[in-house]
Design goal:
By secondary structure, the protein is α/β, with parallel strands linked by helices. The protein has five helices and five strands; from the N terminus they run βαβαβαβαβα. It has one domain: Rossmann fold (3-Layer(aba) Sandwich), CATH 3.40.50.
Length: 168
């Protein structure tokens, strides 16, 4: 039986203060590895560029993926994005180049509604698989921040798409 998705897309997250993979990266990649090993998709796309450090988040994510048992040849990297909108734009390009049509998106639950809305605004066929996360004061704050970000991002994505339509 074929996998239900062509690729699992894992969205980047902050690296630790020393430049190593941060807890969100490790959590998201571990979840993606479980999905990969459950035959949800034959490929994993790590999406995240350089934010706080020169090393793109996707490099740290790929390293964690290999440590989680995902074969190197199943891991692809998108190493330019620095925000959710760019994750969608650059992942869409890679999906088209690889001939992938359906994706399973991995990010934190608080980020998932905005991430799905952004990817779908670009016409991508994506479903969400949020990485498990413990409830804490930090998580509650993240949910609050995302409520505001969802409102703002609707305008940001519309403006981006309108500008892109006018480009040659």
């Amino acid at each position: 039986m074929a996998a239900p998705y062509d690729v699992i897309i894992v969205l980047g997250a902050a690296q630790a203060a020393d430049g190593s993979p941060g807890p969100a990266i490790m959590r998201r990649v571990a979840h993606a590895a479980k999905l990969f090993h459950a035959d949800q998709a034959p490929a994993v796309l790590m999406s995240g560029g350089p934010t706080r450090f020169e090393t793109p988040e996707s490099h740290d994510m790929a390293f964690c993926g290999v440590l989680s048992g995902v074969p190197e040849d199943a891991i692809h990297q998108e190493a330019r994005s620095t925000r959710t909108l760019e994750n969608a734009v650059y992942s869409q390009t890679i999906m088209a180049a690889e001939g992938w049509r359906r994706a399973l998106l991995v990010t934190d639950a608080f980020h998932m509604p905005r991430a799905l809305a952004t990817f779908r605004a670009f016409g991508m066929d994506v479903d969400g698989a949020p990485a498990p996360i413990s409830l804490s004061a930090r998580t509650v704050l993240a949910y609050g921040r995302e409520l505001v970000a969802r409102i703002v991002y609707r305008r940001v994505v519309r403006a981006y798409l309108a500008g892109r339509a006018e480009r040659p």
